[in-house]
Structure prediction request, 338 residues.
Amino acid sequence: MVIVMSPDATPSDVDAVVARVETAGGRAFVSRGVSRVIVGLVGDVDLFASLNLSGMPGVGQVTRVSTGYKLVSREQHPDRSVVHVRGVPIGPDTLTLIAGPCAVETPEQTLAAARMAQRAGATLLRGGAFKPRTSPYAFQGLGELGLKILADVRTETGLPIVTEVLSAHEVEMVASYADMLQVGTRNMQNFTLLREVGAAGKPVMLKRGMNATIEEWLMAAEYIAQRGNLSIVLCERGIRTFETATRNTLDVSAVPVAQRLSHLPVIVDPSHSGGRRDLVLPLARAGIVAGSDGVIVDVHPDPATALCDGPQALVEEDLTDLSRTIEDLSVYMGRTNP
Ligand code: E4P
Ligand code: PEP
Prediction:
């Protein structure tokens, strides 16, 4: 069951609802959005129905739901949400470009990539300090040193930082540097991690598991929302198919499907899906026209020397094309580029 509080509900109205549910033996998860508070109830639905919750002050709407996700569902929150990352919006009216190096390697490389991103109109800087690598012999990232480099580059450029956290015990430390926490494809169903990032008080980018259905992806988002955090951006980054010409297959249909099922913003990652520089622009275009709320791409000042994912990193001239495409398609899609 889900309770959507009315816009004028006070904190004590919310507390009273939680108290009534908990006194009756249920559990209540409070999620605070920009304009509304949503309370998800877990327990005996028939018992909740007898509590006259809809008659309580500040309660807007009470609905029984049978899906495995409630707080992130569009049913409960008909308006699409806007997530703000240090003031940068990601949502239905904008087309946000997030760009930066796949991995933070050196201060010089990170600053050069950030400058490239900024010249292309990116308003958020991506960069991995903790890298989830298939091989344990591959570059694993600089760890906390990488986060310090990102923080310096943020000071230098003003770009807020999006960076991945790999394990639950590192969430607090990564969150102390990051403006947005990224949960990668390999960790989409790491439920302990999802709960921790949900409690970290920072916006979260949740990448779709490469083998996950859209429903599983939304249930993963629900774990974060259950901890009181509705500032979640979903990122379609390609799924595993039988095709070997590309690294993964960008599931373009996931954009409108996820947006219909959930109020959360949805963006695409054409870099990790195609895995090839020449595919980034066409995949970005496809994602944007399908309704994506933003694009996240890898860039590198010298991809030939990149320690991770060089073949998909954009260089300056690709970025100029991407930037032009975003400008043109923003107009076509009725969005602004924040
Ligand atoms: C990049 O960001 C990931 O760490 C990378 O895609 C992992 O893939 P790989 O280790 O198989 O190269
Ligand atoms: C990344 O964006 O750095 C990354 C590792 O992506 P994914 O989890 O989608 O592979």
In short: The CA atoms of residues 120 and 320 lie 6 Å apart. The mean pLDDT is 95. The longest strand covers residues 27-32.
